[in-house]
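A further point concerns the way the authors explain their paired sequence and structure data. An entry of this sort, consisting of the sequence and the corresponding C-alpha coordinates, reads as follows:
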Amino acid sequence: MNNRKQYLLSWTLMTLAAISVISANSIFVPSLSYIADELGTSEAVASSNMAVSRVCMVVCMFCFGAFADLFSTKRLMQAALFICILSCGLSAVAWNIFIFDVAQAVEAVSRAMVMLTMQLWIAAISNKDNLASRLSWYTILITIAPIAAPSVGGFVSDYMSWRYSFILLIVICGTILTLLSFYRLYNGKENHAEESESQDEEAHKPKARFAPLETLREYRRVLSTSPLLKLSFSLGWMAWIDGAYIAIVSFLFIRELGLSASSLGLIIFTYVAGAFAGRFPILYLQKHYGPRVTFLFHQGVILLATVGSALYYFLTGSHSVLEITIVMVLFGFGFSGMYIYCLRNSMVLEPEKKSIYTSLFNSFYSIASLIGVVTIQVLYSLGFTSIGIFQTLMVVASVAMIAGSIMHLQEVKILEPINENQ
Protein backbone atom coordinates (compact mmCIF):
# COMPACT_ATOMS: atom_id res chain seq x y z
CA MET A 1 0.00 0.00 0.00
CA ASN A 2 1.47 3.40 -0.94
CA ASN A 3 2.04 6.10 1.63
CA ARG A 4 -0.74 8.41 0.46
CA LYS A 5 -3.36 5.67 0.52
CA GLN A 6 -2.23 4.47 3.95
CA TYR A 7 -2.37 8.05 5.25
CA LEU A 8 -5.95 8.59 4.03
CA LEU A 9 -7.20 5.22 5.24
CA SER A 10 -5.60 5.74 8.65
CA TRP A 11 -7.26 9.14 8.96
CA THR A 12 -10.61 7.63 8.00
CA LEU A 13 -10.41 4.76 10.45
CA MET A 14 -9.09 6.83 13.35
CA THR A 15 -11.69 9.54 12.80
CA LEU A 16 -14.55 7.04 12.64
CA ALA A 17 -13.33 5.49 15.88
CA ALA A 18 -13.21 8.90 17.56
CA ILE A 19 -16.68 9.86 16.26
CA SER A 20 -18.18 6.61 17.54
CA VAL A 21 -16.68 6.84 21.03
CA ILE A 22 -17.47 10.54 21.46
CA SER A 23 -21.06 9.92 20.34
CA ALA A 24 -21.64 7.79 23.44
CA ASN A 25 -21.38 10.95 25.55
CA SER A 26 -23.93 12.99 23.61
CA ILE A 27 -26.41 10.55 22.09
CA PHE A 28 -28.54 10.45 25.26
CA VAL A 29 -28.50 14.20 26.05
CA PRO A 30 -31.91 15.01 24.47
CA SER A 31 -33.35 12.04 26.39
CA LEU A 32 -32.02 12.96 29.83
CA SER A 33 -35.40 14.10 31.11
CA TYR A 34 -36.91 10.83 29.78
CA ILE A 35 -34.18 8.84 31.54
CA ALA A 36 -34.88 10.74 34.77
CA ASP A 37 -38.59 9.91 34.53
CA GLU A 38 -38.04 6.24 33.69
CA LEU A 39 -35.47 5.71 36.42
CA GLY A 40 -37.52 7.75 38.92
CA THR A 41 -35.11 10.54 39.83
CA SER A 42 -34.83 14.36 39.88
CA GLU A 43 -33.03 16.82 37.61
CA ALA A 44 -30.09 17.26 39.97
CA VAL A 45 -29.63 13.51 40.48
CA ALA A 46 -30.16 12.70 36.79
CA SER A 47 -27.38 15.09 35.79
CA SER A 48 -25.03 13.45 38.30
CA ASN A 49 -23.82 11.08 35.58
CA MET A 50 -22.25 14.06 33.84
CA ALA A 51 -20.37 15.02 37.00
CA VAL A 52 -19.18 11.44 37.52
CA SER A 53 -18.19 11.22 33.86
CA ARG A 54 -16.08 14.35 34.05
CA VAL A 55 -14.35 13.27 37.25
CA CYS A 56 -13.28 10.08 35.48
CA MET A 57 -12.18 12.12 32.47
CA VAL A 58 -9.93 14.27 34.65
CA VAL A 59 -8.38 11.27 36.42
CA CYS A 60 -7.79 9.44 33.14
CA MET A 61 -6.24 12.48 31.48
CA PHE A 62 -3.89 13.08 34.40
CA CYS A 63 -2.81 9.43 34.29
CA PHE A 64 -2.54 9.31 30.51
CA GLY A 65 0.72 11.25 30.46
CA ALA A 66 2.36 8.50 32.51
CA PHE A 67 1.53 5.60 30.19
CA ALA A 68 0.92 7.22 26.78
CA ASP A 69 4.40 6.29 25.51
CA LEU A 70 4.17 2.66 26.67
CA PHE A 71 1.66 1.57 24.04
CA SER A 72 1.18 2.11 20.33
CA THR A 73 -1.56 4.33 18.94
CA LYS A 74 -3.34 1.26 17.61
CA ARG A 75 -3.39 -0.50 21.00
CA LEU A 76 -4.65 2.63 22.77
CA MET A 77 -7.45 3.12 20.23
CA GLN A 78 -8.46 -0.55 20.42
CA ALA A 79 -8.65 -0.30 24.21
CA ALA A 80 -10.79 2.85 23.94
CA LEU A 81 -13.24 1.15 21.58
CA PHE A 82 -13.50 -1.95 23.76
CA ILE A 83 -14.15 0.11 26.90
CA CYS A 84 -16.79 2.12 25.01
CA ILE A 85 -18.59 -1.10 24.02
CA LEU A 86 -18.67 -2.19 27.68
CA SER A 87 -20.05 1.20 28.69
CA CYS A 88 -22.80 1.17 26.05
CA GLY A 89 -23.83 -2.34 27.05
CA LEU A 90 -24.16 -1.31 30.70
CA SER A 91 -26.07 1.85 29.75
CA ALA A 92 -28.52 -0.12 27.64
CA VAL A 93 -29.50 -2.39 30.54
CA ALA A 94 -29.30 0.19 33.38
CA TRP A 95 -32.17 -0.34 35.83
CA ASN A 96 -31.42 2.61 38.12
CA ILE A 97 -29.52 5.89 38.01
CA PHE A 98 -26.54 4.43 39.89
CA ILE A 99 -25.92 1.83 37.18
CA PHE A 100 -26.31 4.48 34.50
CA ASP A 101 -23.76 6.67 36.34
CA VAL A 102 -21.30 3.77 36.49
CA ALA A 103 -21.76 3.19 32.75
CA GLN A 104 -21.04 6.84 31.98
CA ALA A 105 -17.96 6.74 34.21
CA VAL A 106 -16.65 3.83 32.16
CA GLU A 107 -17.50 5.70 28.95
CA ALA A 108 -15.49 8.69 30.17
CA VAL A 109 -12.36 6.54 30.30
CA SER A 110 -12.80 5.52 26.66
CA ARG A 111 -13.51 9.10 25.61
CA ALA A 112 -10.44 10.47 27.37
CA MET A 113 -8.26 7.79 25.79
CA VAL A 114 -9.56 8.37 22.27
CA MET A 115 -9.26 12.17 22.51
CA LEU A 116 -5.68 12.15 23.77
CA THR A 117 -4.62 9.29 21.50
CA MET A 118 -5.89 11.15 18.44
CA GLN A 119 -4.21 14.41 19.46
CA LEU A 120 -0.85 12.74 20.05
CA TRP A 121 -1.10 10.71 16.84
CA ILE A 122 -1.77 13.88 14.85
CA ALA A 123 1.14 15.62 16.59
CA ALA A 124 3.41 12.66 15.79
CA ILE A 125 2.69 12.78 12.05
CA SER A 126 2.75 16.60 11.83
CA ASN A 127 5.16 19.50 12.18
CA LYS A 128 4.72 23.07 13.43
CA ASP A 129 3.63 24.25 10.00
CA ASN A 130 0.67 21.90 9.63
CA LEU A 131 -0.15 20.98 13.26
CA ALA A 132 -2.84 23.65 13.77
CA SER A 133 -4.51 22.92 10.43
CA ARG A 134 -4.54 19.14 10.99
CA LEU A 135 -5.93 19.56 14.49
CA SER A 136 -8.58 21.87 13.06
CA TRP A 137 -9.57 19.44 10.31
CA TYR A 138 -9.68 16.59 12.81
CA THR A 139 -11.98 18.50 15.15
CA ILE A 140 -14.08 19.59 12.19
CA LEU A 141 -14.56 15.94 11.26
CA ILE A 142 -15.37 14.70 14.76
CA THR A 143 -17.95 17.46 15.12
CA ILE A 144 -20.09 14.97 13.23
CA ALA A 145 -20.48 13.13 16.57
CA PRO A 146 -22.24 15.86 18.56
CA ILE A 147 -24.13 16.98 15.43
CA ALA A 148 -25.54 13.57 14.50
CA ALA A 149 -25.66 11.73 17.84
CA PRO A 150 -28.20 13.95 19.68
CA SER A 151 -30.46 14.07 16.62
CA VAL A 152 -30.35 10.29 16.29
CA GLY A 153 -30.74 9.83 20.04
CA GLY A 154 -33.74 12.16 20.23
CA PHE A 155 -35.47 10.41 17.32
CA VAL A 156 -34.82 6.94 18.75
CA SER A 157 -36.10 8.03 22.19
CA ASP A 158 -39.35 9.44 20.81
CA TYR A 159 -40.13 6.45 18.59
CA MET A 160 -38.46 3.51 20.37
CA SER A 161 -36.46 3.90 23.59
CA TRP A 162 -33.30 5.70 24.66
CA ARG A 163 -31.75 2.28 25.37
CA TYR A 164 -31.65 1.42 21.65
CA SER A 165 -29.27 4.34 21.05
CA PHE A 166 -26.58 2.53 23.02
CA ILE A 167 -27.25 -0.76 21.24
CA LEU A 168 -26.66 1.05 17.93
CA LEU A 169 -23.30 2.33 19.20
CA ILE A 170 -22.27 -1.18 20.28
CA VAL A 171 -22.69 -2.40 16.70
CA ILE A 172 -20.77 0.57 15.23
CA CYS A 173 -17.87 0.43 17.71
CA GLY A 174 -17.61 -3.35 17.34
CA THR A 175 -17.31 -3.03 13.56
CA ILE A 176 -14.58 -0.37 13.77
CA LEU A 177 -12.68 -2.36 16.40
CA THR A 178 -12.66 -5.36 14.06
CA LEU A 179 -11.39 -3.29 11.12
CA LEU A 180 -8.70 -1.64 13.23
CA SER A 181 -7.42 -5.05 14.36
CA PHE A 182 -6.46 -5.93 10.77
CA TYR A 183 -4.95 -2.60 9.74
CA ARG A 184 -1.54 -0.97 10.19
CA LEU A 185 -1.76 2.75 10.93
CA TYR A 186 0.21 5.42 9.11
CA ASN A 187 3.23 6.52 11.16
CA GLY A 188 4.37 9.62 9.26
CA LYS A 189 7.22 8.04 7.28
CA GLU A 190 7.53 9.02 3.64
CA ASN A 191 9.37 5.96 2.36
CA HIS A 192 10.85 2.65 3.44
CA ALA A 193 14.37 4.04 3.72
CA GLU A 194 13.27 6.70 6.17
CA GLU A 195 11.23 4.13 8.07
CA SER A 196 14.23 1.82 8.42
CA GLU A 197 16.41 4.73 9.55
CA SER A 198 13.76 5.73 12.07
CA GLN A 199 13.58 2.18 13.40
CA ASP A 200 17.36 2.19 13.93
CA GLU A 201 17.07 5.47 15.84
CA GLU A 202 14.23 4.10 17.94
CA ALA A 203 16.30 1.05 18.85
CA HIS A 204 18.93 3.31 20.47
CA LYS A 205 16.45 5.43 22.40
CA PRO A 206 15.78 4.69 26.09
CA LYS A 207 12.81 2.38 26.45
CA ALA A 208 9.63 4.09 27.59
CA ARG A 209 8.69 3.25 31.15
CA PHE A 210 5.79 3.81 33.51
CA ALA A 211 6.89 6.68 35.78
CA PRO A 212 3.89 8.29 37.50
CA LEU A 213 6.00 10.21 40.05
CA GLU A 214 8.13 11.69 37.30
CA THR A 215 4.96 12.65 35.44
CA LEU A 216 3.59 14.37 38.56
CA ARG A 217 6.84 16.31 38.90
CA GLU A 218 6.49 17.43 35.29
CA TYR A 219 2.91 18.51 35.95
CA ARG A 220 4.06 20.55 38.95
CA ARG A 221 6.85 22.15 36.93
CA VAL A 222 4.50 23.11 34.14
CA LEU A 223 1.94 24.54 36.55
CA SER A 224 4.57 26.60 38.36
CA THR A 225 6.60 27.86 35.39
CA SER A 226 4.48 27.66 32.24
CA PRO A 227 1.97 30.31 31.08
CA LEU A 228 -0.37 27.48 30.05
CA LEU A 229 -3.08 28.17 32.64
CA LYS A 230 -3.09 31.93 32.11
CA LEU A 231 -3.28 31.44 28.35
CA SER A 232 -6.21 29.04 28.82
CA PHE A 233 -8.07 30.72 31.71
CA SER A 234 -10.73 32.23 29.47
CA LEU A 235 -11.22 28.89 27.72
CA GLY A 236 -11.85 27.31 31.12
CA TRP A 237 -14.92 29.50 31.60
CA MET A 238 -16.15 28.55 28.15
CA ALA A 239 -15.79 24.89 29.11
CA TRP A 240 -17.71 25.73 32.30
CA ILE A 241 -20.62 27.04 30.22
CA ASP A 242 -20.43 24.09 27.82
CA GLY A 243 -20.55 21.50 30.61
CA ALA A 244 -23.38 23.34 32.36
CA TYR A 245 -25.37 23.77 29.15
CA ILE A 246 -25.22 20.06 28.33
CA ALA A 247 -26.37 19.26 31.87
CA ILE A 248 -29.29 21.72 31.79
CA VAL A 249 -30.40 21.58 28.16
CA SER A 250 -32.93 18.72 28.37
CA PHE A 251 -34.68 20.17 31.41
CA LEU A 252 -34.52 23.73 30.03
CA PHE A 253 -36.05 22.97 26.65
CA ILE A 254 -38.28 19.97 27.41
CA ARG A 255 -39.61 20.59 30.91
CA GLU A 256 -39.53 24.40 31.00
CA LEU A 257 -40.02 25.43 27.37
CA GLY A 258 -42.21 22.48 26.35
CA LEU A 259 -40.28 20.89 23.46
CA SER A 260 -39.85 17.19 22.60
CA ALA A 261 -36.60 15.20 22.50
CA SER A 262 -36.67 15.25 18.68
CA SER A 263 -36.99 19.05 18.65
CA LEU A 264 -34.22 19.36 21.20
CA GLY A 265 -32.02 17.16 19.02
CA LEU A 266 -32.41 19.71 16.22
CA ILE A 267 -31.52 22.58 18.57
CA ILE A 268 -28.39 20.75 19.68
CA PHE A 269 -27.69 20.22 15.98
CA THR A 270 -27.64 24.00 15.44
CA TYR A 271 -25.34 24.48 18.46
CA VAL A 272 -22.84 21.97 17.15
CA ALA A 273 -23.22 23.32 13.61
CA GLY A 274 -22.04 26.66 15.00
CA ALA A 275 -19.09 24.85 16.56
CA PHE A 276 -18.41 23.18 13.21
CA ALA A 277 -18.29 26.54 11.43
CA GLY A 278 -16.03 27.97 14.15
CA ARG A 279 -13.24 25.54 13.29
CA PHE A 280 -12.56 27.21 9.92
CA PRO A 281 -11.51 30.80 10.79
CA ILE A 282 -8.57 29.65 12.90
CA LEU A 283 -7.02 27.99 9.83
CA TYR A 284 -6.67 31.46 8.28
CA LEU A 285 -6.27 33.72 11.33
CA GLN A 286 -3.53 31.71 13.03
CA LYS A 287 -1.47 31.57 9.84
CA HIS A 288 -1.85 35.17 8.67
CA TYR A 289 -2.42 37.26 11.80
CA GLY A 290 -0.90 35.36 14.71
CA PRO A 291 -2.12 34.46 18.19
CA ARG A 292 -3.30 37.90 19.36
CA VAL A 293 -5.79 38.47 16.55
CA THR A 294 -6.93 34.83 16.61
CA PHE A 295 -7.70 35.06 20.32
CA LEU A 296 -9.48 38.42 20.11
CA PHE A 297 -11.68 37.27 17.23
CA HIS A 298 -12.98 34.16 18.97
CA GLN A 299 -13.23 35.81 22.38
CA GLY A 300 -15.17 38.70 20.85
CA VAL A 301 -17.74 36.36 19.29
CA ILE A 302 -18.26 34.57 22.61
CA LEU A 303 -18.69 37.79 24.59
CA LEU A 304 -21.15 39.00 21.97
CA ALA A 305 -23.24 35.90 22.72
CA THR A 306 -23.00 35.86 26.53
CA VAL A 307 -23.31 39.60 27.16
CA GLY A 308 -26.08 39.83 24.57
CA SER A 309 -28.02 37.07 26.29
CA ALA A 310 -27.67 38.75 29.69
CA LEU A 311 -28.96 42.02 28.22
CA TYR A 312 -31.86 40.20 26.54
CA TYR A 313 -32.99 38.86 29.93
CA PHE A 314 -32.59 42.31 31.48
CA LEU A 315 -34.86 43.82 28.82
CA THR A 316 -37.50 41.06 28.56
CA GLY A 317 -37.37 39.33 31.94
CA SER A 318 -36.96 35.85 30.43
CA HIS A 319 -35.25 33.77 27.76
CA SER A 320 -36.87 32.29 24.64
CA VAL A 321 -36.19 29.20 22.52
CA LEU A 322 -35.06 31.27 19.53
CA GLU A 323 -32.86 33.60 21.59
CA ILE A 324 -31.10 30.77 23.46
CA THR A 325 -30.57 28.90 20.20
CA ILE A 326 -28.96 31.92 18.51
CA VAL A 327 -26.82 32.68 21.57
CA MET A 328 -25.52 29.12 21.77
CA VAL A 329 -24.79 28.95 18.03
CA LEU A 330 -22.59 32.06 18.40
CA PHE A 331 -21.04 30.65 21.56
CA GLY A 332 -20.31 27.31 19.85
CA PHE A 333 -18.71 29.15 16.93
CA GLY A 334 -16.28 31.07 19.13
CA PHE A 335 -15.71 28.29 21.64
CA SER A 336 -14.67 25.66 19.10
CA GLY A 337 -12.10 27.93 17.49
CA MET A 338 -10.75 28.93 20.89
CA TYR A 339 -10.33 25.29 21.90
CA ILE A 340 -8.19 24.55 18.82
CA TYR A 341 -6.19 27.71 19.38
CA CYS A 342 -5.44 26.86 23.03
CA LEU A 343 -4.74 23.19 22.28
CA ARG A 344 -2.25 24.17 19.63
CA ASN A 345 -0.62 26.58 22.10
CA SER A 346 -0.18 23.78 24.64
CA MET A 347 1.61 21.61 22.07
CA VAL A 348 4.12 24.23 20.88
CA LEU A 349 5.17 25.71 24.23
CA GLU A 350 7.49 22.72 24.80
CA PRO A 351 7.23 20.38 21.78
CA GLU A 352 9.35 17.67 23.42
CA LYS A 353 6.81 17.49 26.27
CA LYS A 354 3.67 17.23 24.12
CA SER A 355 2.18 14.32 26.07
CA ILE A 356 2.59 16.16 29.39
CA TYR A 357 1.14 19.42 28.09
CA THR A 358 -1.68 17.68 26.22
CA SER A 359 -2.70 15.67 29.28
CA LEU A 360 -2.54 18.71 31.53
CA PHE A 361 -4.42 20.96 29.11
CA ASN A 362 -7.23 18.45 28.64
CA SER A 363 -7.39 17.84 32.40
CA PHE A 364 -7.81 21.56 33.01
CA TYR A 365 -10.51 21.68 30.33
CA SER A 366 -12.34 18.69 31.83
CA ILE A 367 -12.16 20.09 35.37
CA ALA A 368 -13.79 23.32 34.18
CA SER A 369 -16.52 21.33 32.43
CA LEU A 370 -17.02 19.23 35.58
CA ILE A 371 -17.44 22.37 37.68
CA GLY A 372 -20.08 23.51 35.19
CA VAL A 373 -22.09 20.32 35.75
CA VAL A 374 -21.72 20.55 39.53
CA THR A 375 -22.83 24.19 39.36
CA ILE A 376 -26.07 23.03 37.73
CA GLN A 377 -26.69 20.45 40.43
CA VAL A 378 -26.06 23.00 43.20
CA LEU A 379 -28.34 25.62 41.64
CA TYR A 380 -31.12 23.06 41.09
CA SER A 381 -30.83 22.00 44.72
CA LEU A 382 -31.18 25.67 45.75
CA GLY A 383 -34.46 25.93 43.85
CA PHE A 384 -33.30 27.84 40.75
CA THR A 385 -35.35 27.40 37.60
CA SER A 386 -33.64 26.31 34.37
CA ILE A 387 -34.17 29.81 32.92
CA GLY A 388 -32.65 31.40 36.04
CA ILE A 389 -29.66 29.07 35.86
CA PHE A 390 -29.04 29.92 32.21
CA GLN A 391 -29.04 33.63 33.04
CA THR A 392 -26.61 33.05 35.90
CA LEU A 393 -24.23 31.23 33.55
CA MET A 394 -24.23 34.08 31.06
CA VAL A 395 -23.55 36.82 33.62
CA VAL A 396 -20.85 35.04 35.65
CA ALA A 397 -18.97 33.73 32.62
CA SER A 398 -19.01 37.11 30.86
CA VAL A 399 -17.26 38.79 33.80
CA ALA A 400 -14.77 35.93 34.22
CA MET A 401 -13.91 35.78 30.50
CA ILE A 402 -13.18 39.51 30.40
CA ALA A 403 -10.69 38.98 33.23
CA GLY A 404 -9.31 35.95 31.36
CA SER A 405 -8.85 38.03 28.22
CA ILE A 406 -6.64 40.47 30.12
CA MET A 407 -4.56 37.61 31.51
CA HIS A 408 -4.19 36.04 28.06
CA LEU A 409 -3.10 39.24 26.34
CA GLN A 410 -0.46 39.76 29.03
CA GLU A 411 1.05 36.32 28.30
CA VAL A 412 0.48 36.06 24.54
CA LYS A 413 3.85 37.65 23.79
CA ILE A 414 5.47 34.29 24.53
CA LEU A 415 3.65 32.74 21.54
CA GLU A 416 4.72 35.34 18.99
CA PRO A 417 8.39 34.23 18.73
CA ILE A 418 7.20 30.61 18.35
CA ASN A 419 5.04 31.61 15.37
CA GLU A 420 7.91 33.57 13.81
CA ASN A 421 10.23 30.54 14.07
CA GLN A 422 7.84 28.20 12.22
Residues 213 and 280 are 39 Å apart (CA to CA). Residues 228-256 form the longest helix (29 residues). The chain has 19 helices and no strands.
